[in-house]
Amino acid sequence: MEDASAEEQQRLTYQQKLKAAVHYTVGCLCKEVAADREMQFSKQTVAAISEVTFRQCENFAKDLELFARHAKRSTINTDDVKLLARRSNSLLKYITEKNEEIAQVNLEQKAKKKKKPESGNQEAAESVAEAEAVESVG
Amino acid sequence: MAGSFSPDSDPTTRTLLRRVLDSTDPQRPRSPGPGARSPHSSQSSRTLRSQALRSAQRAGLETLPSRGSHTKASAQRQQRHSHGARAIGRWPHVPASGHLEEQTPRTLLKNILLTAPESSMVMPRPAAGTPVLAPPVVQPSRRESSRGSLDLQLPELEPPTSLAAGVLAPGRRKRLRLSAFQQEVDQGLPLSQESPKNSDPPSLTSSLSLTFGTPLQSQSVKRPGLARRPPARRAIDVAAFLRDLQDSSATSGALALEGDSHRTPGATLPKETMLEDTQFFSPPLVGHSFKAHLSLPAPATAPTTSGAAGAQRPRGRRTWSGRMLQDSPECAGSPKPSQLPTGRLEAASPQAVGFPSLHSGLSGEDDGVEPFGDGADEHAEEGKGDVRGRTTREASAGAQGAAGAEASEQMEASGSPEAVDPGGSSWPADSSVRTGSPQLAPKAPESLQARQLHHCVEPAPPAKLPPRPRAAGPRPRPDPYKAGLSHYGKLFSFFAKMPLEKAALEMVEKCLDKYFQHLYNDLEVFAAHAGRKTVQLEDLELLMRRQGLVTEQVSLHVLVERYLPLEYRQLLIPCASSGNAVFPAQ
Q1: Which residues of B touch A71 (CB under 8 A)?
Q2: Better-scored residue on pLDDT, B22 or A85
Q3: DSSP character for B296?
Q4: pLDDT-based confidence at B415, cuts 50/70/90?
Q5: Confidence check: pLDDT of B143 > 70
Q6: Do B530 and A79 touch (CB under 8 A)?
Q7: What SS3 state is found at B74?
Q8: Residues from chain A contacting residue B531 (CB–CB below 8 Å)
Q9: What is the pTM of this model?
Q10: Residues A19, A27: contact at Cβ < 8 Å?
Q11: CB contact, 8 Å: B175 with chain A?
């Protein structure tokens, strides 16, 4: 069907756009690390990291959805994210700390009428994904 | 030619038929009997065989007096069997007795069986038979050339003549033979070897070749693990030990034993294991031996100064009884060197049995020691007994490194004049190790010995051989844990189809351990994630999904249906049963 193929095309382009975005972000991060450690990153390395990050993001998304459904919820929660990150101790600790920070912030914000608890979750998720990707690659 | 016995037919039947055919009339080249053949051609090989046998039988019996009849019978048979059996077809003399056809195949076969051995062999005329046999022998040899029947044929020729003599007294023999044949049919192995001897040489050849070929292979296949183990080892160890033992009864013997035990722990282990496997050993002892083994390594260290002393020490240590000391030297000396495979184990087992009772309680030690001491005395007195004792000792010592440790322990004990002290020290350590096992207490050297025997078996095959003897003995903590892993280890070693190193097996178990821990950790977390305290099917499904076993294409039910036996499937997948009831209830 034309629609199907068109949709497929759209999806692919969308996917490519996302990949490009990830690649760009990974490149920036690698630049920072290179500046810190005074070690250069080859382009292939950056490409590899971004590819791995992208695939891991897919996996994470599926797992998060599974976890949320397992807990009979329809929204992904920080608990799901923590469950996802339990494998790596350091990552788990990091996420837990972040989560507590966010919770505190949320509480404070609640006192001030909840400003953006969701963005905190989003950031946590992104940082988790990046951190995991980097860790897996490293 | 007809001689095509159904390849899948039992060799016994075939051999029987062959025998009959050969015995009756090998000479005759198949004289095709038009009538006889056709009806039989359609018959199964068995039927043909039975008929052939029957006809051969009859031919043999009837034609005893005259060859002509034989020829005729053979010819008839030939016709009959031409279709059924290759071998028969080959043989020129396939007699077919017309009257036999009238009988049912079953009766024919029965008759043949009853009379065949005698009749076939009947080569009532040895003179006639031998020449006759020669050609058939040649033929079957050709046929079985692959099986190397040629060699067998020659010797077989002789037995038939003897059989002829035996044929004369059918009565009981026939019945016996029949039973033997029946057994052979059932087992397909041993009897054929015997019966063929009685039957015609040609049949013998074929049967022998067949029987030899199959049973040997089957045996090896039946027990791959055992077959792999070289029995030569045992002999060497035993001999060496015996020699050592005998050379130095008390002093040097003990030392030598120690060395031997140290040297041959590996050798003894496999032996022991095999022995353990084959022998019916009381489980508790095994468990104890294992435990004792564990405990032994710790204390064992100092080499034994004098065998006698050492023998006493270990015993004294274990049994904590002076009495034992006396016996121990004797027993210790003897047991060490020899690890007779079965004899030892058997000897050890009774001793071991005594031991556990001894060990069970310090208080009971004395009592236990006494019986053991008596036994030990007996052993000591008797060379064999010594050997046995030694084996037990050795077995225990050689069981694993622990065995050596034990030996060293013993030696240590022996080395120091104070048997009790070292024993005491070792003992508490042992007991602490073995807290779980009441029997285990390797306190008494005797028990240790007995255990060592079992040890050797156990430690060696912890993963490789099914730890039957161990199963019964409850072990301290690692027991149920290790037992479960050892089960997987055994499975692994079985499917590996090649011998495994102990270290490799241990590594496999370690990895399995980590894997399962990880797995169950995940399950626990999943259950907690869902706010539950019990792991349920959903958790497992989630786990499998994460593992990639369950996908959008493959659901859990599909996997259940594929891999689980029916009983489990019924429990897992709801199914409607009679009365409109669904089980398991949803």
Answers
A1: 529-531
A2: A85
A3: T
A4: very low
A5: no
A6: no
A7: helix
A8: 71
A9: 0.34
A10: no
A11: no
